[in-house]
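Figure-free illustration: sequence to structure, shown twice.
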Amino acid sequence: MSASELTPPEAARWAARAGLPLPADRHAALAATADHIHSVVAVLRELDFADTPPAPAYRAEQESPDAAL
């Protein structure tokens, strides 16, 4: 287990701290789900978005597929 993996007791503690107390049989599932989400977010953090404008700058009507016809 790596240092970044969330253990079931830690997951239970964080859930309780957030006001979401869970039964003991849900702690392992919560930890596994949190670890999966963390791994997905870690991949997204590695992407280079330097030339990507922020979402409010996108205008769907300007990028219409019919515009090229």
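We now fold a second protein in the same way, so the two outputs can be compared directly.
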Amino acid sequence: MLIDALEHLVRGIVAHPDDVSVREKRLRRGTLLEVRVNPDDLGKVIGRGGRTATAFRTVISALAGRNGARIDFVDVDRR
């Protein structure tokens, strides 16, 4: 559910929605949601001063509840 919600939110603001993918990684510290976007859209997803990224994190944290989830934004070229 978190993956679908985050993917939907990110696709709504980027110029290349087909390049958006979200992967879930289980770590000892909890869940990490890795968002991959086109390099041209990375600035738009992070936002000025990180405001957009913080908003995404706030919404996903509210949806995740006690379990919590961390979000990492990556461009598609980085491996």
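Summary for the second example: The beta strands are 21-27, 30-37, 69-75.
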